[in-house]
Amino acid sequence: MLILGLESSCDETAAAVVQDGRKALSNVVASQVDEHRLYGGVVPEIASRRHAENVVGVMREALREARATLADIDAVAVTYAPGLIGALLVGVNYAKGLAFAAEKPLVPVHHLRSHIAANYLAHPDLKPPFLCLVASGGHSHIVAVEDYTKFRVIGRTRDDAAGEAFDKAARAMGLPYPGGVHLNQAAAGGNPLAYKLPNPQIEGAPYDFSFSGLKTAIINLIHNAKQKGEALPVPDLAASFQAAVVRALSERMMKAAAEFGFQTVALAGGVCANSCLRETMENQCKKRGMRLFMPPLSLCGDNGAMVGAQGYYEFLAGNTANLTLNAYASLPIDG
Ligand code: KG4
Ligand code: ZN
After folding, report:
1. What are the two backbone dihedrals, phi and then psi, of residue 78, each rounded to the nearest 5 degrees?
2. pLDDT category, 18, cuts 50, 70, 90?
3. Which of 39, 213, 260, 293 is deepest in the core (most CB within 10 A)?
């Protein structure tokens, strides 16, 4: 079965053709990063406009690379939530038009579910149940993936998402947009023990995160030094901040895996491209004899293939929509 996956929830316009939820026959991403860099972050209005300009070309290229035509496609899957509402609406409306014109089923896909499904493309042997850390620019969740379309949130951030914290800390360090990846690179030469940063625990919620205190702590460190006319070494700041975020994420994941009896764990979302997180989780899982699955770097960020992968399982579960489908800026993964 061939699914056309469309993604436009943030600043990538993406389309892919995916076979049986497991094999990407094409995966085309038009990134807007260069344009948003001018403003130091994603400008929603610009994102919507670029999606509208690019979506047709990206979809055509995805079909061409897969050597398929619309007639070969069994269903059109599209990200409908959560994300920037104007950006989502472009993809949803385009997918509705396409599905209607080509007389194909329309499959709405939750963005975080699709990030998890990126793992299915890279790991044919991965099947639910497993425990997944989903960390992106807008969300940080520990999710029990009970089945392909059945999820239970075990922990979540109380304030900033991990990616958001990386981006804001990077900005305070004077690193270019997008911050997370530059902070990761800057940390390579730094000392992770140079600065002591908080590791907040939330009473009664051992699997929840809080990154806002950590972000404020690093920003205050930088500003206080600036006021004294000092400049702190960016590699040490980056390494210390990265270590603190990775510790918060990995500690809770390992604790949750033990508590809920998971021997298989996975990572998903843009932040799982972080080399320190990948290494730390690899070491921790190895120590405990647990299996760890991670998407390759090319599938950690937003893309259409992950939408096609999750779309396949949503379609099998009968989760299709009609032309009244709407987009939602926020929507729980386990809804
Ligand atoms: O999943 P994603 O591509 O988009 C959203 O759904 O938000 O995640 C983007 C987030 C950004 O905050 C970005 O800075 C972060 O993932 N990110 C990283 C790295 N690569 C991307 N954070 C830390 N280290 C990285 N190497
Ligand atoms: Zn994403």
Report:
1. -145, 145
2. very high
3. 293
**Could you give the CA distance from residue 282 to residue 290 in angstroms, rounded to a whole number?**
9
Query: Which string of DSSP letters, residue by residue, matches 247-262?
Result: HHHHHHHHHHHHHHT-
Taking CA atoms only, the protein residue closest to ligand 1 atom 23 is 180
| Ligand 1 pocket, residue 273 CB under 6 Å | yes
269 lines ligand 1 (CB under 6 A): yes
Q: What is the pLDDT of residues 179-209, one digit of tens each?
A: 999 999 999 999 999 999 998 889 999 999 9
Among candidate residues 103, 31, 64, the one with its CA nearest the CA of residue 322: 103
What CA–CA distance (Å, rounded) separates 170 from 91? 30
Ligand 1 pocket mutation, candidates 113, 181, 211, 300, criterion most atoms within 8 A of CB: 181
Q: Among 12, 88, 132, 136, name the best residue to mutate to test ligand 1's pocket (greatest count of ligand atoms within 8 A of Cβ).
A: 136
Inform me whether the pLDDT recorded for 335 exceeds 90.
no
Give SS3 for 26. strand
- In the chain, the percentage of residues whose pLDDT exceeds 90 is 98
Q: How far is CA 230 from the centre of its chain?
A: 36
Q: Judge whether 274 and 300 are in contact, CB under 8 Å.
A: no
- Per DSSP, the three-state class of 195 is coil
167: Cβ below 6 Å to ligand 1? yes
